[in-house]
Amino acid sequence: MDLLPLSHTEFSQPDYWNRFFQKRGKIPFEWYGEYPQLHTVIHKYITPANLVLIVGCGNSALSENMYDNGLQHLFNIDISDIVIQQMTDRHKSKRPKMVFHKMDVTEMTYPDEYFNAVLDKGTLDALLVSEDADVVANVQAMFGQIARCLKLGGRYIIISLLQDHVQKVLLNFFTHLGWPIRIHRIYMEPDVRDRSSLSLPVFAVVVTKFRSLPNMPQIVEVCRFEDRIDRLEDIKYLSAIVKDMQYYHIVRQQLLNRLPDDQQVSLELHTRGSDIPRYNLTVVDSPHRVENKFAIFIVPQGSAGFQRLVVVTLSRGHSYENLEAIKAELSSRVMELAPKDCSVKAQIPFLSIGEDIGKRFPVAQGRSDTSGDYLIEDVELNGGQLFRRLVFLSNKNVVQSEARMTHARDKKKRKNRFEGSPGKLRVDKGYLHSDYLIAMVGGFGFVPRLDCPLSCVLVGLGGGSFPSFVHSVFPQVNLDAVELDPSVVDIAQNWFDLTPDERLKVHIADGLDFIRKLVSAGENRDVVVLDVDSKDHSVGLNCPPLAFVEPEFLTTISRLLSDDGIFILNLASRDESIKEDIMQRVCSTFLTCASIALQEDINTVVFASNKSTDSPCFDPSTFTHQCCTIDEMIKSTWKDTNVEVEDMMSTLKFVDRSENVSGF
């Protein structure tokens, strides 16, 4: 600890550095990495013929490593008498061409335009310890001397942590001169779980002496990958990119320890050829100590038992060969996120939902005035099964609607194959992509007679899979589907095969107004379904919007129901207190309330009626019989269906007004 200065001002004082090197002796002291980490950048910009100045050389082994690898025209300066004498004695016989001078970098005596390159490893950071006026003036004097001594076309290479105040002074000075600026990220080889490693990443800044021309734009570049240089439109973007890289490094340092129970870390991994992230990583730690330390869970396009789990989501806009290729690509990067007590030699399991990562075929894209940009894509899963998905890019990790696709019957078999999604496809209307949709179909089991005409209103269309299913299975049902967004209606009809007719009518309207107008007209409906996505997630409610579950509107729905009518609500929220509050509102409005909480989703499907629980339709045997009847109707319509109502409704629970819950 006694090697550290008492004040940052000592960094610019010869006496401090003399004491430092006296105490350290001949042991080299390396600021910001050693030659193996820096040699790529050094040899990229310095050639054997170049005359090179190394400022603040200290007793670093960098000079001797450069000398031994062909860069022998080296001038080394430092303000410490002691270290200059140490270095002269150490190298005079083995490296006779190397020169050491005691000199202050702010007052150099070398001629103008003398050097081809100036290398600064840590000196700038040692001097620029604050934004005090005298500190900045001292650093600007150093910059001025380096600019004077560099030849035209010469390069000043700074190895730095690029903290905010250093960035500001450095970039302002050389932007004012009009010199091109390029930044490289230096990747260190040592184990990142070593606690002695730096808490910030290291960068190499390369500025090139340039004769500025009037109206010539500033050249600003960044190298996030060794073989890729990105040119930026403005210097301001450079700082943002540096901050991103610093954030990633700091997160890796923090992940040496266990995350708090209520915290998770999200990261994006990019490739050289795309601005779209290739992988989205979410790191989650178990609240309990477990024997298994670390695992990676790969979520296909579109856990328990481990101390730390990294969830990897595959992004749109990239192709993936197979799961093994993904493992190979991710292995080195995800190991940087392992907890410190995870052995470097440990075999880290890669988990996934099956081995099929899926192939994507973009079908259509557009923009909705209500929901923003959207994408429709066909995704191949499960050994070749094709699914069509609607995704709004504002929430790109959520599949808004999904339909299973089948090949349309074609008398002439096509011999030629082609890239992209197969043509002549039709939507399999006997498939429902979510358990909550199956539970909503089960709600028809509360209706006393399924062989009589029934009227239904659905608010919220999506891809139209629910109304299409009801329309095909229940020929006695007349259904009004209400959707606020005209684009969603177009999508449902053009891409998900929703076919309106006399029994299935689609209305572009506000669902709140539509239901209020029905009540005002004195009409009734046997089934009322709310499946409306909320655009405002700030209240913690994904579905429906809060206005649909206000007491006043729930009362309006109650008035709309026929004597034997049933209200079906898709309720989605991760906040249990919000769910409980809405359930209480429903129970306060209707005489009978039941629900199914879906274990694999955040959805709870709520069923409510103006009838009391002693009504025959709520008798367990009667309801089970109705569910069996529905399953028979479904099977007679769709042989290859995934919908089994009786099994789904077996977990139904009733809630009475005193909030006591009973199984069905």
Automatic annotation (TrEMBL):
Q: GO terms for molecular function, please?
A: methyltransferase activity
Classification via CDD domains: AdoMet_MTases
The record's annotation in Pfam families points to:
Methyltransf_31, Spermine_synth
Methyltransferase domain residues are 53-161
Keywords, comma-separated and alphabetical: Methyltransferase, Multifunctional enzyme, Transferase
The record's section on InterPro entries has: Lys/N-term_MeTrsfase_sf, Methyltranfer_dom, SAM-dependent_MTases_sf
Tell me its family. Answer: Belongs to the methyltransferase superfamily.
Q: Which PANTHER family match?
A: EEF1A LYSINE AND N-TERMINAL METHYLTRANSFERASE (PTHR12176:SF78), SAM-DEPENDENT METHYLTRANSFERASE SUPERFAMILY PROTEIN (PTHR12176)
Put simply, this protein is called: Methyltransferase domain-containing protein
Native organism: Candidula unifasciata
